[in-house]
């Protein structure tokens, strides 16, 4: 069972390590979480992104957030990646597995996973 | 929706959008019935909106005039012989309660599914809201109140910190 003591330990650890906190990153990964996205499987995609960002220690650089309907329901689950001075990248028909690869190669490595983008899907 | 947990994730977002700062999600299983309640203290809905809110062509979304959230929950309940009820008030603004009932042994009753995943997702998306989740069932109750978690963490550590989310998920799963 999870105990409050473990929670206190997290708190004490965080006090010393401000960089572990998420929220101020220069890259935003946004997951569509309206009815269409949820029905198509957006929840595991979001979980995978959150998990990988934490595992790859990208918390300082990357913020994972949720949004409503993007208006492209047939392409859900959708992940949009925003980065200052760069064009938005839209990943479509995502899965948890694809999300992990995007985290590793794009969010960490800076290289767009072209085959998952909407441009590739529309070809 | 393949799991009730996905309906919960979807419909609770309406409460977030209504500006609620306290959202209660309760699942109770008793005498063969499962009751899901989502209770918020948000802005509420006017009576004419409540009257049509389970119609797919009633929605607050702006990308297109179709909203399937409540209609899908209603369908999930009614296909088991259950019901969907909505109480809401704007004057006074007492918030909204959505209550759906399901006959558990009905062939078309969807499983509860990954409730922990849905609650963690809601908290990740709206860490400033006070969430109370209660699952009352024969195998033992599960209760998680973010007010208690916040009391331990203090004001500087947000609920959507990865380590905190992992703790919450483990706690919800009874790990």
Can I get a quick summary?
The complex is a heterodimer of chains A (123) and B (175). Chain A has five helices and four strands; from the N terminus they run αβααβββαα.
Structural summary, described in words:
- The complex is a heterodimer of chains A (123) and B (175).
- With 123 residues, chain A is α+β, with helices and mostly antiparallel strands.
- Chain A has one domain: Glutaredoxin (3-Layer(aba) Sandwich), CATH 3.40.30.10.
- Chain A contains 5 helices and 4 strands; from the N terminus they run αβααβββαα.
- In chain A, a hairpin with a 5-residue loop joins β3 (79-83) and β4 (89-91).
- Chain A starts with a helix and ends with a helix.
- Chain B has one domain: Heat Shock Protein 90 (2-Layer Sandwich), CATH 3.30.565.
- Helices cover 34% and strands 25% of the residues of chain B.
- Chain B is built from 6 helices and 6 strands.
- Chain B has a 6-stranded mixed sheet.
- In chain B, a hairpin with a 5-residue loop joins β3 and β4.
- The longest helix of chain B is centred in the N-terminal third of the chain and has 14 residues, at 4-17.
- Chain B is globular and about 40 Å long.
- Chain B starts with a helix and ends with a helix.
- The model of chain B has no long low-confidence stretch (mean pLDDT 92).
- Chain A binds chain B through residues 1-2, 4, 6-8, 10-11, 13-15, 20-23, 33-36, 38-39, 43-44, 46-47, 50-51, 53-54, 59, 64-66, 68-71, and chain B through 1, 6, 9-10, 13, 61, 63-64, 67-69, 72, 114, 117-118, 120-121, 124-125, 148-149, 152-154, 156-158, 160-165, 167, 170-171, 174-175.
User: How many independent structural domains of chain A?
Assistant: 1
**N/C terminus separation of chain B:** 26 Å
Number of helices of chain B: 6
Please name the fourth-level CATH homologous superfamily of chain A: Glutaredoxin
Secondary-structure element order of chain A, as H and E?
A: HEHHEEEHH
Q: At the first level of CATH, what is the class of chain B? A: Alpha Beta
* CATH architecture label name of chain B: 2-Layer Sandwich
Proportion of residues in helical segments of chain B: 25-40%
The tally of domains of chain B stands at 1
Number of strands of chain B: 6
Radius of gyration of chain B from the CA trace? 16 Å
